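SEQUENCE-TO-STRUCTURE ENTRY
===========================
Question of interest: how does this chain fold, as expressed in backbone structure tokens?
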Amino acid sequence: QVQLVESGGGLVQPGGSLRLSCAASGRTFSSYAVGWFRQTPGKEREFVAAISWRGVSTYYSDSVKGRFAISGDNAKTTVYLQMNSLKPEDTAIYYCTADTRDSAVVLGRGDYWGQGTQVTVSS
């Protein structure tokens, strides 16, 4: 069992930046793909970004491409989501997910999920 803990959320003004962190407890992410999803009330859960170390691959939704960047530390214990040029429509609860299957992460079917961290973009 992998425990995931998100942090870094908060309230920022439009155009501002935040960096979210997803930390694994108990083991590293070396055998996993890790992704970020976000959700707001009344809307479907939306894929944001994912990273897989198997092929050193990253994936982004069109809505965040060019503004967000996903990365991991060399120890493979933490995955980051750097969010720049934030817009009000980025407001959501952001969840971290992990799975040994890259496809499961991208499709939102990962075996492991964090508790979420709130991101609010407002003036």
